[in-house]
Amino acid sequence: MSEHVDVLIVGAGISGISAAHHVLRAFPNRSCAVLEARDSLGGTWDLFRYPGVRSDSDMHTLGYRFRPWSLPESIAPGGAIRDYLGDTAARSGVTDRIRLRHKVSRAEWSSGDNRWVVHAEHDGEPVVLTCDFLHLCAGYYRYDRGYRPDFPGLEDFGGKVVHPQQWPDDLDCAGKRVVVIGSGATAITLLPALAPSAGHVTMLQRSPSYVASLPNDDRLARALRRVGGHGLVRWRNIALSSGLYHLSRRAPGLVKRLLLKDVARRLPANYPVREHFAPRYDPWDQRLCIAPDGDLFTAISSGRASVVTDRITRFTRTGIELGSGRELPADVVVTATGLNLLPLGGIDLVVDGEPVSLPDKLVYRGTMLSDVPNLVFTVGYTNASWTLKADLVSEFLVRVLRHMAEHGYRRCAPHTDNAGMPTRPLLDFSAGYVLRSVHEFPRAGAEGPWKPVKGYLPDIVSLRHRPVADGALVFTA
Length: 477
Hints:
This protein is an alpha/beta fold. It is built from 13 helices and 25 strands. The protein is 29% helix and 23% strand. Strands 1, 2, 3, 4, 5, 6, 17, 18 and 21 form a 9-stranded mixed beta sheet that branches. A 5-stranded parallel beta sheet has the order 7-16-8-9-12. It has a 3-stranded antiparallel beta sheet with strand order 13-14-15, with no helix packed on it. A hairpin with a 4-residue loop joins strand 4 (102-110) and strand 5 (115-122). It is globular. The two termini are 27 Å apart.
């Protein structure tokens, strides 16, 4: 036995809630369901519970366009984001459509029936649903396990080793020597969060990241919101982040000097800024890390936290031996070493009996797969808030569904006759977690709607305003 819905959404995080909201608002008489593998909605913001977890984008753009962020924090704690998502889902009528503990493993398309057959597991029991259109909102990384390198001697360490993705509820770092391995957004969040109670916190990095300080209490945003200027705040922040990104591409040396100058201003005199905060790559070759109100530098200046830039030789019983010969003592080691990527939530796709090989597929308008019918997926920006892309993809899905209804179409799939088109990685980003797994993802093309769009403003044109029937998206009655 199987249940049929018009639109099936996989994932109840930022993207899935956006998708369900847009579908329900546009088609109140159509059936829609959201399958979520975990036991709560919220996705990333329900999964990560490490100390200090917070947004890595400003909340005026990470919040939904259809429901503006109203709290004073511009960089918000994870709990506040979780509450915001839950409240948004409830207000939009999405909560009643979410089915928790439904892990999707396989989706099979039948052209004879013009529908997907979706296989899931709920509390150990198999579940089968069919749908006319499938929207995958499961993100692009593994929820059950983060990335941890093979550290020599790890089994010899006498202390506690944890990964932020599986932070234990009972872990007490008070008075202990904590070493956080990593230099990304998670490590830069953990350092100031643990410093007030730990004996000492050290961020051990192989190479630095760029860190920008932003005010957490945006007074101009507060003033504008009081007079109903939510849209103005959102567009101002979009313009500022987009402007910084493009300036970084065009004048990386200038942006690097400005970032390092600000870091030096916030740290004690003669602090080795270049050693610990000047990466070998240019700004925005990897994602820029945010320190609200410069909290990272305040923790370092207080003496309760420090940064060490060195290589790990091996773990010892009492700490970590470094390439310089120094041993870094530790009671707790946090491996903030990144994510394991997982394209389309690890779901196996089959079209008319043939398994879909993702690396052989081209991505259309950043949201559909070549020759895969009635399917869209959401992968957000690497240089801006994830939600900006999620909302645009949801709007595009609604436009496609309306076009199909108006013309009596049952099926649509992107197609190109240019079999020799040059391709490039979908995630054109030099972060380690991307480079490790990008070969498993579908690819972008070199022309037309297959070419990757870099930025929110061009995507507005592509997904919100360009005709749905553009010749590359083929509709079938």
